[in-house]
Amino acid sequence: SVLDISNKYENIIPAIGIHPWYSDNISETQLSKLETLLQQYPQLWVGECGLDKIKNKDISSQLNIFISQIKLANKYNRPLIIHSVHANEETEKLFCSTLFIPRLSQP
Prior knowledge:
Shape: globular
Distance between the termini: 21 Å
Strand content: 5-15%
Structural class: alpha/beta
Number of helices: 4
């Protein structure tokens, strides 16, 4: 797993997130598991997450999962790795809102 590799090599920073292609099949349990991992592993980043209109033009479920991950990144003060494909306008709107607090330094 990503965490095993990062434990073996100190120069690898692990990231775990829900890719937008899989957001239709995500439950609250899976989001809770992501939060638990963030609590257990202080070096863990959130991502790759975001919005992608290539596979599906209706991004409503992607948007909900992306917002949940943004909130987790903020809550645990973690960097966020963003995936945005043909959805730059929507992604920009999220960043112009108060949802995301950008980090200026690494953990």
